[in-house]
Design brief:
Elements: H1 12-22, E1 29-30, H2 47-59, H3 72-83, E2 94-100, H4 101-115, E3 120-125, H5 129-138, E4 141-146, H6 156-165, E5 171-175, H7 188-200, E6 204-209, H8 223-231, E7 235-240, E8 252-258, H9 262-279, H10 286-295, H11 298-325, E9 327-328, E10 331-332, E11 343-345, H12 350-360, E12 362-363, E13 369-371, H13 380-391
Parallel strand pairs: 1-12, 3-4, 3-5, 5-6, 6-7
Antiparallel strand pairs: 2-8, 7-8, 9-10, 11-13
The protein binds (2S)-2-hydroxybutanedioic acid.
(2S)-2-hydroxybutanedioic acid binds next to loops.
Protein name: Aminotransferase class I/II-fold pyridoxal phosphate-dependent enzyme
Domain Aminotransferase class I/classII large: 27-387
Pfam family, one: Aminotran_1_2
Length: 392
């Protein structure tokens, strides 16, 4: 039977990790998979996370099962950061559960919307490739539209046209902040307008937050999303702790539902529990428990915020340096100064991406997406010169 299966191509982004590791050149530059890197190119464990792990190790007295909802202390501990200090449950209309990474949360959100009758996902593209892949795997269609109008602004008209094509119950997927892969986000005013459009079309908004704190600030990065949530009767939020707590391989995510009232909220969460049980039974515990310990300790929380601020500052320096370089070869780097977070897209074709890899040891996604965190004081000039070499 298994011979009937067609071979599948490995995930292009994850394959890039192996290609980079196999390259013997000492001065190679990794702008591929989305992980934060420090000035030395490392992705260290946060000091606040290390300390929280030690505390967890000393105090954890059981590893017995929790339930499909995971660690409720972790889930509730994140809520003031996502939804605001002032009534984070919005009068008892928001509840959540832990998931295996943000990916598990996105899968749960799509599956729940489908169980409620949704048939399609309205998706601005390019997007994180796994959004499309998860939707396809679940059996949802895609109503795609161009996320960006140019190198620095969103294409609002394309979003409006896509919403017009959707049916009530369809998903509207929006990136909370630091859009992956373009780095181009909606303004707060646009978020408010999208909320009106979504409500009128009776869509199920899914707000995917994977980079809180890496754009403009912990609060700033969710301002648009909070304005959106204040204006809609229901929505789902999918959250990843990969980047802002540096917990990538521990698979730490959360899923929240905002419902019109408590009865609908209970129904949604009971369905989400049942879907989680059928998919993964329970989320892995360690990372979520670590974040719970961290967020309950004022000193560790302050340290985590400091580390996050330093990361954001470094990303800002890289963006400013690229923007100041102006045009290199055929590429105008100025708009990168306006973008947020880890990613930006470069207007390079697949031959140029291959030439950067072969001739300069510079690794980036085939789409032209770069993870700017792979740049530092010692390689940024070489990167800019290499772009001129392959595009000039
Ligand atoms: C990325 O976009 O590079 C990251 O979110 C890693 C992943 O899982 O794709």
């Amino acid at each position: 039977m298994l011979e009937r299966l067609d071979p599948q191509a490995p995930d292009a982004l994850l394959a890039l990790i192996k290609m980079f590791n196999d390259d013997p050149r000492e001065d190679k530059i990794d702008l591929g998979v989305g992980v934060y890197r420090d000035e030395e190119g490392r992705t260290p464990v946060f000091r606040a996370i290390k300390a929280a792990e030690e505390k967890l190790h000393e105090t954890q007295d059981s590893k017995s099962y929790l339930g499909p909802e995971g660690d409720s202390g972790f889930v509730n501990g994140l809520m003031p950061y996502i939804f605001g200090d002032d009534d984070p449950t919005r009068g008892g209309r928001i509840a959540g559960m832990q998931t295996p990474g943000g990916t598990g949360a996105v899968r749960l959100a799509f599956a729940l919307a489908q169980a409620a009758g949704g048939k399609s996902v309205v998706l601005g593209e390019p997007s994180w490739p796994n959004h499309r892949q998860i939707a396809k795997d679940i059996g949802l269609d895609i109503i795609g539209f161009d996320h960006a109008a140019d190198a620095a602004t969103t294409d609002f008209g394309a979003l409006e046209a896509a919403i017009e094509k959707a049916q009530p119950g369809d998903v509207l997927l929006l990136h909370g902040s630091s859009h992956n892969p373009t780095g181009i986000d909606y303004t707060v005013e646009q978020w408010e307008r999208i909320a009106e459009l979504s409500k009128a079309a009776q869509l199920v908004p899914v707000l995917d937050i994977a980079y809180q704190g890496l754009g403009e600030g912990l609060e700033e990065d969710v301002a648009g999303m909070r304005a959106f949530l204040a204006a809609v009767p229901e929505a789902m939020v999918t959250y990843s702790c990969d980047k802002n707590f540096g917990l990538y391989r521990d698979r730490v995510g959360a899923f929240y539902v905002l419902a019109a009232d408590r009865d609908i909220l209970d129904r949604a969460i009971s369905n989400a529990n049942s879907l989680a049980r059928a998919n993964w039974s329970m989320p892995p515990d360690h990372g979520g428990a670590t974040v719970r310990v961290l967020l309950r300790d004022a000193d560790l929380t302050a340290q985590w915020k400091e580390e996050l601020t330093a990361m954001r500052g470094r990303l800002r320096w890289i963006r400013d340096t690229l923007a100041k370089a102006g045009t290199t070869g055929a590429i105008d780097l100025t708009p990168l100064g306006e973008h947020n977070g880890l990613f930006s897209m470069l207007p390079v074709d697949s031959d140029q991406v291959a030439a950067l890899r072969k001739d300069h040891g510079i690794y980036m996604a085939g789409s032209g997406r770069i993870n700017i965190a792979g740049l530092n004081e010692s390689n940024i000039d070489r990167f800019i010169a290499a772009l001129a070499d392959v595009t000039g």
